[in-house]
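A quick aside before the break. I want you to see a complete sequence-to-structure record at least once, exactly as it would be stored in a machine-readable document. Don't worry about memorizing anything.
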Amino acid sequence: MIPKPRQDSEEKPLDEQLELLQERLAELIVTNEATENQLTNLTFESNDVISYLKKLVEEKDEETARLEEMLDEQMKESDRKFKNHRENYELEEKKLKEEIEKLKSEMSIMDTQLGNQHRIELEIIEMGSKLNSLQSVVDQQEETIRRKEAEERSVKIAAIEQFG
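That is the input. The structure line, written in tokens, reads:
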């Protein structure tokens, strides 16, 4: 309730003040109704925006879930491929190590064979030297035999000529 103002000589008459207050009250009622209408409109608009944003969030949540699922599947596929490649590389590494060991064995055998071949070549050279030495001894002995045979013939011819 509004307190009644006292009426002074300088104050406006009470009726005028009441009329002014009623006008002001009417203006405030109109302003209040306009504000309430605006609030209602804003509430509807806010509800629309909230509804839109909720829908957008739900869509983004679904998309995020779908992308996370895709990522999970891709990670599983990547892990599977990585495991497969690792197994293949390990198998290849094992084969290469076996091949290296085989080649090392073959190299060892070849080294032994080369050593044997070198020893044989040295023995052949030594035998060739011995053969040459023996050949010169044989040549000397043959020369000696020829000289002795020639001397014996000479002696036989001289004996035949002397006794003949």
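Two observations worth writing down. DSSP finds one helix and no strands in the chain. The chain has a mean pLDDT of 88. We'll return to this after the break.
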